[in-house]
């Protein structure tokens, strides 16, 4: 499918504008530098919804990635196949004005605003590609997919990073939520623990409320370098249950 850009209404662009301004008011303080650099690279503008073709032209020259339009949530195999091919699946529909604060299913603001800027970061995108390849090797195993999904959840969606001695946000699920952005860094409620693959394998994720635990990486290079450990621990775990 394609993004039918001309069909977006004035209200659609206004919703994007409100969400964008609300997040950009706080993200310079909370987000990773790589994300803010990516915002400039992909050319987000407050007053209009991003055009996938325009973003893809810019990403192609930087990381070789592209935004790939999908109707909504897709199955695990299709999802990981796209990521392995450097195609990030993104919906083209945007929440309504009365849904500004909460949606059960991810919309374009989450998919695009949350995820796309970091596609300009090479170590991070290399991690995405290789993690997806590991998932595809074991795609017929529900338990393997669950464990890989936990890694994806606690990094790509809800990861924190240590930069210049401070905690910063890089997970898209946090970056697209003003409430969880502040909560993940400022609140005394959640745990913030070092990124350890075995610990993530043993931590089910939460979908219906803010996270109780966040895993903190030291760098995107360290995240990429954890892939052999992910592969080895996954194979050991699968061997132990077979």
Could you give a quick summary of the protein structure above?
The protein is an alpha/beta fold and about 240 residues long. It contains 13 helices and 6 strands.
End-to-end separation in angstroms reads 40 Å
CATH superfamily: Aromatic amino acid hydroxylase
Question: What is the ordering of alpha helices and beta strands?
Answer: HHHHEHEHHHEEHHEHEHH
Q: Give Rg in angstroms.
A: 17 Å
In the CATH hierarchy, the third-tier topology is known as Phenylalanine Hydroxylase
As laid out across the biggest beta sheet, the strand order is 4-3-6-5
Query: What's the CATH class, please?
Result: Mainly Alpha
Strand-residue proportion? 5-15%
Class by alpha and beta content: alpha/beta
Globally, the shape reads globular
Total separate domains: 1
Number of strands: 6
Number of helices: 13
What is the name of the CATH architecture?
Orthogonal Bundle
Largest sheet composition: 4 strands, mixed
Helix content: 40-55%
């Amino acid at each position: 499918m394609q993004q039918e850009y001309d069909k977006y209404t004035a209200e659609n662009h206004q919703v994007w504008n409100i969400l964008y301004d609300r997040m950009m008011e706080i993200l310079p303080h909370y987000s990773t530098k790589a994300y803010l650099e990516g915002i400039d690279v992909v050319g987000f503008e407050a007053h209009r919804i991003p055009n996938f073709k325009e973003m893809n032209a810019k990403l192609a020259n930087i990381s070789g990635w592209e935004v790939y339009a999908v109707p909504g949530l897709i199955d695990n195999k299709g999802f990981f196949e796209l990521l392995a091919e450097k195609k990030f699946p993104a919906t083209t529909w945007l929440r309504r004005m009365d849904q500004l604060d909460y949606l059960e299913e991810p919309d374009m603001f989450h998919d695009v605003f949350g995820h796309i800027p970091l596609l300009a970061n090479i170590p991070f995108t290399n991690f995405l590609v290789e993690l997806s390849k590991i998932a595809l090797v074991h795609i017929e195993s529900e338990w393997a997919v669950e464990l890989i999904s936990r890694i994806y959840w606690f990094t790509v969606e809800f990861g924190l990073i240590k930069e210049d001695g401070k905690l910063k946000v890089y997970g898209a699920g946090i970056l697209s939520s003003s409430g969880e952005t502040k909560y993940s860094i400022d609140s005394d409620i959640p745990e913030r623990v070092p990124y350890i693959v075995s610990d993530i394998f043993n931590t089910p994720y939460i979908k219906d409320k803010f996270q109780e635990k966040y895993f903190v990486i030291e760098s995107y290079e360290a995240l990429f370098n954890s892939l052999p450990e992910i592969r080895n621990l996954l194979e050991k775990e699968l061997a132990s249950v077979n």
